[in-house]
Specification:
homodimer; alpha+beta; Butyryl-CoA Dehydrogenase, subunit A, domain 2; two-stranded antiparallel ribbon; 17 helices
């Protein structure tokens, strides 16, 4: 059976020492998240993930979700009870506005909670995840009436939420969508169409499901400019707010997926279902982007979460599994063999995963904090800078954390040898579950295009320039310290590669967009590596300072070693990404489609 | 439903143009493989894979193998009939010696046949694959009586074979194995113990199963020096060669695996089963290595095969799926969207897979040919050089082809977006199936250690020096040609990196084996890239010559473009591998086990 222990020590290091979030006590909700409150929340979240969700993870994979002939869907044994516990703990409203029943605490806390949930049980974590995304869209674009009607019940977990974008013939290119909406005399709409890949589309956890649905109003313009967002409850809602009869929306089937079997991924059929417009007519894409940005950060966190739990299990196995002897001579001569953690290749594997996990978690906290600032700061300049940061980093975070997160589950599985391929150990489930995160909420190729095509050039490159300036200033400030040189020198080199790549794109991709497209994925990965390098340099500095101040905690030493491993083994990849970007699109675009 | 078309054109290009295998007509069996015969064999193999095996691939995944209460195992519907057709086609004996019923044709042909089989149906391909491995061990180490008794019936497919190495507590470290053998008065042995992960361990395809089993004879030395190899038939064999009653060996359970569900991977219980020694007492490891080297090449081919079929399906999808518009403007303005193959990022993905596939296939043919030469040449020096090559390249081929082969199934799956995660499209099965190849027959970490610890230093580095000289001479011979520069210049750089890495290991790893261990995987990958670069340079040269001679076949142009893509996008990774190797083991080994 797989194990999981929430990385509380690392979270506290980031919150208290690296990002010192008490600095933001002037922002709404932050002063409520005092160190004591944070400790309690993190501790309870850890406990819930470890004790309630993790034991249900394999059950969820084995049982999956079952659709009955009448369209009802049963979730795996224990999921419904766990969801009840989860909502009773108030977790769904942790960062939601107090006026709708939430606690108003920083989203940063919620993101860390999400990491724990997902590590313990990714399929389960998606149910509240989708609900939070739907609430976010309603809170930003819904009418006051809609907010009051839906959000409190969603926070309570009585009602859950979904996002309905994809149709069989249209995924990335939503302009093609066909689901139609016909306006009724009472101001409502009749929605008809088929949506696929709808996570948590139907289940037995809540009395109602609030579907947010993209559809085209009769007579609307073609393409993305004619798409509107609707809220369509599974069951109608009576005037007094109680739940009424069925509403022309049903689960046609459950998709047969590679993983996340515990989540019901549905084909949803809308047949004259009654829905209400959210936001303005034909402005559905903008409203949906609110959900998607929230969701993309959350999906990035999933990549980290799967890498973390896979790492923990690989470490446990590597310490226990006796096989062979250390290359330098037996370490445990009294035993029949040494534990495989003595082998450099096993350690290299583990450190590769760990160096990612800790940098990725730092990036999540850093970015989530900027999100809180963007939404809560009273200072417009501060809000704008934070919003720039979020826009720029969201595709990087989603793409890099899920690509590497998945790759790391594969590495961790490899530590188990043949046992990693056997279901009982749970490693292969991590691989299958983690795989989806590279795909949904926009494939990672789409994230890369969003980065180079939209986020990078926006406002004359203001967001990227701000990051280059910040990281460059940090490197300059600490470059003379002997202790920091092993971290800062590679960071400076890597940052130089990123700046060269950016310059190359500016000079070569404006007139030839294929040059941007061909280099997009490499640019995203290069960007992620530099961000990680910057995170590691900061973490190393804080660890050195704490050690110098007399703190002898072993994790501080581990931080310094893991950071050095990152600088020696992982950051040098920036040079290859740069070379690929600079090779341009000519070769990539040369062959006709039929020659492939 | 996934598609598959055997890459006959590419195989012919390698056989006829790049490696010109008719040059070897002086070797036994090669003159029988005349161009006409080769064409017929390749054509029939392709047809069998495409028409018989491929349609059974998804059935095999869905149904899996079923163990009944009495220990019998039923394979998926259609597998048994397909195996009958396969054996009746004479495929099992294609390269086996004529004196035992084989056709004596080059193993090179068999390896290409294996690629086709595996692309079509990896789980099926393992049944004949294991039988061929078992035959190989019997042919080299068995007594004449054993060869005559077993091999003809195995070629006929009446009896199949298995390899029994792994036990619950021992995989890589076979010295720990506990299965014991007790000598009987008649010269036979009673074998008792439990083996796990036994592919094709029990099934309904043949009247008998010939298990090759590693066990320890009572009183034998501890460790690997006390291991012997035994042949243990599932059912006893009467004096007249007919099959008798059961023989104390049974399938205890079928493992629950991530993939290759159509192959019955068994826990095998030996309970006083009667077996006979193969080769000398306590020399079982040497005998087993014959099977393992054969098997390792075969597993490398599996990596290629899965990458090839995944590529073909990704290309088909990318040509059909309409989504979005080309960055440079609509290519199919009459349609609602362009096919996604217009996007540079999709093409980059496809070319990454294709550039691997074609280089890997060249490496397979090159190495398999050396294997044929090593076994069949009359010239001792030629045999030795070929054997050096095989020894050196086997771990590289196994490790690199299965690592990249798996990674490429993931890339190909990504081209499908959300549909790639859904079982019906078949892409996720390729990922799950391909994953095992990185693990079995020695994990890829073990391949890397075999390379740096054993194959590289053997005979003073003779094999590696021969490769460096050959590739270096090639680069020198063609470096002045303008047409060849885009291929030869990157090859020379990469070869330089490999030579520097080799030098570094010689200088730094002799006294500090951890430096070899920490750099082993990078060295293996670096080696593989340089081999691929050498393959691409040769293929480009041949393609250029054919084009210059007036051949206008489109695949020649595609070769040149794909080769350039390899040089621009993939070969530059050698610099990172070199940097990692040169960073040494200090950081990797610094943390105590409990700090992970």
């Amino acid at each position: 059976m797989p194990i999981y222990k929430a990385p509380v020590e690392d979270v506290n290091f980031l919150f208290n020492d690296v990002f010192q979030i008490d600095r933001y006590n002037n922002l709404p909700g932050f002063s409520d998240a005092s160190p004591d409150v944070r400790d309690a929340i993190i501790g309870e979240a850890a406990k819930f993930a470890e004790e309630v969700l993790q034991p249900l993870n394999r059950v969820g994979d084995l049982e999956g979700c079952v659709r009955h002939d009448d369209g009802r869907v049963t979730t795996p044994k224990g999921f419904s009870e766990a969801f009840r516990q989860y909502t009773e703990g108030g977790w769904l409203g942790l960062s939601a506005p107090a006026e709708y029943g939430g606690q108003g605490l920083p989203v940063t806390l919620t993101q860390i909670m999400s990491e724990f949930l997902t590590s313990a049980n990714m399929a389960f974590g998606m149910y509240p995840g989708l609900t939070k995304g739907a609430m976010a869209a309603l809170l930003v674009h819904g009418s006051e009436e809609q907010k009051k009607l839906f959000v409190p019940r969603m926070i309570a977990g009585d009602w859950t939420g979904t996002m309905n974008l994809t149709e069989p013939h249209c995924g990335t290119d939503l302009g093609l969508l066909r689901t139609r909406a016909v306006k009724q005399a009472d101001g409502s709409y009749k929605i008809t169409g088929t949506k696929i890949f709808i996570s948590a589309g139907e289940h037995d956890m809540a009395e109602n499901i609030i579907h947010l649905v993209l559809a085209r109003i009769e007579g609307a313009p073609a393409g993305v400019k004619g798409i509107s967002l609707f809220v369509v409850p599974k069951r109608t809602i009576n005037a007094d707010g109680s739940v009424g009869g069925p509403n022309g929306v049903s689960c046609g089937s459950i998709e047969h997926k590679m993983g996340i079997h515990g989540n019901s991924t549905c084909v949803m059929n809308y047949d004259d279902a009654t829905g209400w417009l959210v936001g303005a007519e034909n402005k559905g894409m903008a409203a949906m982007f609110v959900m998607m940005n929230e969701a993309r950060l959350g999906v990035g966190v999933q990549g980290l979460a799967m890498s973390e739990v896979a790492y923990q299990n690989a470490v446990a196995y590597a310490r226990e599994r006796l096989q062979g002897r250390a290359l330098t001579g037996a370490k445990d001569p009294d035993k029949p063999a040494d534990p495989i953690i003595v082998h450099p290749d096993v350690r290299r594997t583990l450190l590769t995963i760990r160096a990612f996990n800790e940098a990725a978690r730092a990036m999540v906290v850093w970015t989530a904090l900027k999100g809180d600032i963007a939404h809560r700061s009273a200072d417009e300049k501060e809000r704008q800078a934070a919003d720039d940061h979020m826009g720029l980093m969201t595709p990087v975070l989603k793409g890099v954390l899920t690509d590497s997160g998945f790759a790391n589950t594969v590495l961790a599985q490899q530590v188990f040898g043949g046992h990693g391929y056997i279901a009982e150990h749970g490693m292969e489930q991590f691989v299958r579950d983690a795989r989806i995160a590279m795909i949904y909420e926009g494939t990672n190729g789409i994230q890369a295009l969003d980065l180079v095509g939209r986020k990078l050039p926006r406002d004359g490159g203001r967001a990227a320039m701000a990051f280059f300036a910040e990281a460059g200033a940090y490197a300059k400030a600490h470059g003379d310290s002997d202790a920091m040189k092993p971290y800062v020198a590679p960071l400076s080199t890597a940052l130089g590669h990123l700046q060269q790549a950016t310059m190359w794109l500016m000079q070569n991709a404006m007139g030839k967009p294929d040059n941007a497209g061909a280099g997009a994925t490499d640019y995203m990965k290069l960007f992620g590596l530099v961000v990680f390098g910057y995170m590691w340099a900061q973490m190393a500095k804080v660890a050195q300072d704490k050690i110098a101040a007399g703190d002898a905690a072993p994790y501080l030493k581990a931080k310094l070693v893991t950071g050095r491993f990152f600088m020696e083994h992982m950051l040098p990849e920036t040079s290859v990404h740069l070379a690929r970007i600079q090779s341009g699109a000519a070769t990539t675009m040369e062959l006709p489609a039929e020659a492939f």
